[in-house]
Design a protein that fits this description.
Blueprint: H1 5-10, H2 15-18, H3 32-42, H4 44-65, H5 76-87, H6 91-104, H7 107-116, H8 137-174, E1 179-184, E2 187-193, H9 194-213, E3 218-219, H10 229-234, H11 240-250, E4 254-255, H12 266-294, E5 298-300, H13 319-342, H14 352-357, H15 360-379, E6 381-383, H16 385-393, H17 400-413, H18 421-429, H19 436-444, H20 450-457, H21 468-475
Helix pairs in contact: 3-4, 3-8, 3-15, 4-5, 4-7, 4-8, 6-7, 8-9, 8-15, 9-12, 9-21, 12-13, 13-15, 17-18
Length: 476
Amino acid sequence: MLTSAHSAAQDRVSLAAAEPTIALGALDGRYRSAVAPLVDHLSEAALNRNRIHVEVEWFIHLCEQQVLPGLPRLTEEQIRGLRGVVTGFGTDEIAELGTIEAETVHDVKAVEYFIARRLDSLELGGLKPLVHFACTSEDINNLSYAVGIRDAVEQVWLPEARTMLEGLSSMAEQAAEVPMLSRTHGQPATPSTLGKEIAVFVHRLGRQVRRIEQQEYLGKINGATGTYAAHLAAAPEADWPGIAQSFVEKLGLTFNPLTTQIESHDFQAELYADISRFNRILHGLCVDIWSYISIGFFKQIPVAGATGSSTMPHKVNPIRFENAEANLEISSALLDTLGATLVESRWQRDLTDSSGQRNIGTGIGHSVLALSNVTKGLKQLDVAEETIAADLDANWEVLGEAVQTVMRAEAIAGTEGMENPYERLKELTRGRRADAEKLQEFVTGLGLSPAAADRLRGLTPAEYTGLAAQLARQFG
């Protein structure tokens, strides 16, 4: 008896059971190599390493500040040993921490126990109560996330963005003087240069990068509801706000002096809005380049051995830009959602942010993947100057703008017969192709001053680009 397709599918071996390392998501599977550097900053393991880092540094800070009676001065060897718990955090330690968490059913408490286990070997066993002293989980989490997000942006996202912009800027420079027919509303319009149009994106994207480079990463360490209540109960004479501020700043973060139990995540919303805006500008670039490829302004350089289509061997598809478009859309959707939800919390604390923040790496990862694709895609483009020139030469009517503007200037200067310039050019050019001969004939019959007539008769669409090349070089 033949088995149905449906029942045969049910009989398949479970891939999850057979191979637990098979990825569910694209970033951890197909595209792992492009986003792998983010793992060191925004993965669950990285979050736990950063938690250990924050806990260890808080331990050291409290001893340095001598905030409690009986606290010893740590030796250099003990400080190195404590920090070695962080730098030595690897595969075995990840597994050990997972085992502890399985018992505690609490991730931050597991970190506390993980550190405490290591104090005896440093002759600090008597200071186990100092680990996680006066802290709520959010004191540790907000700082750990801030460190991870900062490092991911500064060490991974920004370098990728700068690399892409360098390639784009180089293209703008090389094509600064390549005249190109513009299209406004999809219709032939005043010529520009290819380099100037690319430079517009360089300028826009660069502005967003500069905003992101100036981003503040906020942190707090002020207790269960942001009041330092437990701190004061234990050491009422200590300057806890000052101790907290110096600690947060020592981590390379900006101190947030007033919070509930959580750091309010406003800085994250600001950051994600800026990256999302960058994504959308870059998406516009991808759409424009895709469109220029489709009309032949760019030639794609075939990659040796690559297949463009499974059935049409002549094709070289613009897959890098299409892939980037999709990933930019996914990234912006996730980052927009995070930015909208993280700034809200019920009363002094709820856990919606905890679940949401575990998707930060995915949101930023799709942007990094898109940047990688755009960088590669730009390297596979050649400017098709002959095609661009032919397109321009077929649209002499775009010089109508120059003619009617010169006629306006002539009328102001007192030249006779310059009435209704716009309407006269509209009659000649609107919805019609006006070649060089027709335009020359029209200009000759206008009665312009000799200088103006000579200037217009010598003009071609390829020369009617204004300051485009200069602007491309200045701002691209």
